[in-house]
Amino acid sequence: QVQLVESGGGLVQPGGSLRLSCAASGFTFSRHSMNWYRQAPGKEREWVAGITSTGGSTNYADSLSDRFTISRDNAKSTLYLQMNSLILEDTAVYYCNRPRGFAGGTYYNTEYWGQGTQVTVSS
To answer: CA nearest 108: which of 116, 100, 117?
Structure first.
């Protein structure tokens, strides 16, 4: 079955950096675009960044592209999110997401989420 397991979260001071990882299994990772989302306390889950199956194209939520970098290693079936210059407002649970849609010529109707990893930015 499809599994997405995030890691790398933790407590960091403002201005610090973290790299999140998402280990994928149960499907052909290299065929699928992937996303990172986050959910702050009391707020709705929001999209952070996305990457195509090959990694050749990336997109970011407004104002995050200068601090966050999404990447992937298809040989390791792993998705990454490098977060620099963290601010208090980045505090959230971060989720790895495999969206529904076409991959390798097949339409996948089910969306998958990891369990999330907590990122807390605090002095």
So the answer is: 100
Return d(Cα 76, Cα 120) in angstroms, integer.
Answer: 27
Query: Distance (Å, rounded) from C-alpha 52 to C-alpha 71?
Result: 9
> pLDDT of 75-107, one tens digit each?
999 999 999 999 999 999 999 999 998 888 888
Q: HSE-up of 108 (CA within 13 Å, CB side)?
A: 19
Give the separation between CA 24 and CA 78, rounded to whole angstroms: 6
Query: Can you give the pLDDT at residue 72?
Result: 98
Residue 29 near residue 103, CB atoms below 8 Å: no
